[in-house]
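Need tokens for this chain, all 110 residues.
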Amino acid sequence: PRLLFAGSRAARAAVGRTVCAPGGLDTLQAARELLAAIDPFEEHELETALRGLVQQRGTKPGKVFQPVRVAIAGGTVSPGIFESVALLGEVIPAAGEHRVVYNGHLDLAW
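Here are the structure tokens for all 110 residues:
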């Protein structure tokens, strides 16, 4: 596995505010499973799927989009989430499993 991000103060803070927030890890895992099933892996389909996850969970978009953004970008700021996921969609699976490590304790496959 490759390490997506592992140690910067900003990355740890971003994971703490999103992935480690209540429901964040479950949401990220659900998003990962959802995204893995999308074909074709294009921006419109990604947006529809992620917005559907927001509705399914009865939450705000940021509660779904931010954990995904942190997992793929290593922080809470990135270009548009759907564009980012679409662009990285071909890179992430090709590179194999990635791992997110938070403060040496949380180890999440992405």
